[in-house]
Amino acid sequence: IDLRNLTPQTLQLENFRPKLGFMPELASNNLSDLLNEPAPEWVCSDWFNLPEGVESISLVELKGKTVVLTLWAGFDLNGKTRRRMDELRYLYGVFGQEDDIAFVSIHDASLKPFEVELILRNWNLPFPVGCDDENFTSFQNYKVNQIPQTVVIDAEGNLKYYEVEGRLHTLIKAMRRRR
Question: Is 120 left (phi over 0), alpha (psi -120 to 50) or beta?
């Protein structure tokens, strides 16, 4: 409609029936059966922001540290994922140099590694980021249907928290106090 030249318009509406039943693909992540159990290992094809001389990192290698793991995708450029990554960048600035905590994130397999690297540069993400393998193994292992999904894994490798919205900073401090 041209607002500078208002003329009568014809509008035809079509019948619409919303799907009101349960749609598992839209369900929030339910990781309750992983809680207090050994956290699943991740499987990444490429890594970015690793220390010099390190080619990949695994959960086994991080045993003894609290791990803040976030599974995400870059298509949510200005939404919840962007806000979570900004929060993680801040928390990495606060805790990233401590030797008892590790920040790791895994991007889904929908983008090519060079595209993920562009997002990392644009968003100024300083912590290690892996690209999930082509089968989305890490996302499946962590039962991720919606992004972002952040989990906190204790020093023994057990998944302790998966509902972290609005309290991640507090959870990290609590995990550090338990050591």
Answer: alpha
**What confidence tens digit (pLDDT) does each residue in 89-118 have?**
999 999 999 999 999 999 999 999 999 999
Mean pLDDT over all residues of the chain? 90
Q: Per the structure block, which two tokens stand in for 20?
A: 């009101």
Task: Name the pTM for this structure.
Answer: 0.84
In angstroms, the Cα distances linking 67 to 2, 26, 72, 88, 169 are 55, 27, 16, 12, 13
Q: Where are the beta strands (DSSP E) in the chain?
A: 44-48, 66-72, 101-107, 129-132, 149-153, 159-161
> First and final CA of the chain: distance in angstroms?
64
**Residues whose CB falls within 8 Å of the CB of residue 145, separated by 6 or more in sequence, listed in order:** 24, 25, 26, 27, 28, 29
Q: What is the pLDDT of residues 42-57, one digit of tens each?
A: 999 999 999 999 999 9
| Count of residues in the chain | 179
**In angstroms, rounded to a whole number, what is the distance separating the alpha carbons of residues 140 and 158?**
17
Q: Which residues contact 153 (CB under 8 A, 6 or more apart)?
A: 39, 59, 66, 67, 68, 69, 159, 160
